[in-house]
Write a structure and sequence with these properties.
It is built from three helices and eight strands. The protein is an alpha+beta fold and 168 residues long. The chain has a six-stranded antiparallel beta sheet, with helices on both faces.
Length: 168
């Protein structure tokens, strides 16, 4: 089974929204014509927000963006249902409101699901990618997020960091 970041690189699909139009990293290391590691547009820093219970927070490479991770156990059968639940949970305590899903996809066996979303962290508009992977009823959720205007620039490095930490 491929790590989440490798699956992300193979399967990220979005809508045609120009502001958040992100495509899967190509073999040449670019996303939508933006070289990996290209300077992000100048903007502020993400507001500090205490992590939700059971989530671990790490800074993204270069200090821009944020990565939230959590493992869970139980009887989860559907990655899509788990993803919807995590979005609702984060919307009721971490983000200012439930995130607005821009695009979502799931594996045929419903053991992996992803959602590209917009939300607000305090007054700051953010964009993010949530990934859920199930294994035998247990699983993990990973959220990559940054300021909305900077997300497409910082997503490649965050995805790479997640892949490296997962052994992929």
């Amino acid at each position: 089974m491929r790590p989440l970041a490798a699956w992300l690189a193979l399967s990220l699909v979005t809508t045609g929204c120009a502001r958040n139009h992100v495509t899967a990293p190509a073999g040449d290391g670019e996303i939508r014509g933006v070289p990996v590691g290209a300077a992000a547009p100048p903007s502020g820093v993400l507001p500090d927000a205490p992590p939700p219970a059971n989530y671990q927070v790490s800074a993204a490479p270069g200090g821009e963006g944020r990565i939230l991770r959590a493992s869970f156990s139980g009887e989860a059968r559907s990655a899509q249902a788990a993803l919807q639940g995590f979005l609702a949970d984060l919307g009721s305590g971490y983000f200012s409101a439930r995130p607005r899903v821009r695009a979502a996809l799931a594996s045929v066996d419903d053991q992996r699901a992803q959602a590209l979303f917009d939300a607000s962290l305090g007054a700051a508009p953010v964009a993010g990618l949530m990934m859920v992977e199930l294994r035998g009823g247990a699983g993990r959720v990973t959220v990559l997020l940054d300021e909305a205007g900077r997300f497409r620039h910082t997503l490649p490095a965050m995805a790479r960091q997640v892949g490296e930490s997962a052994g992929g």
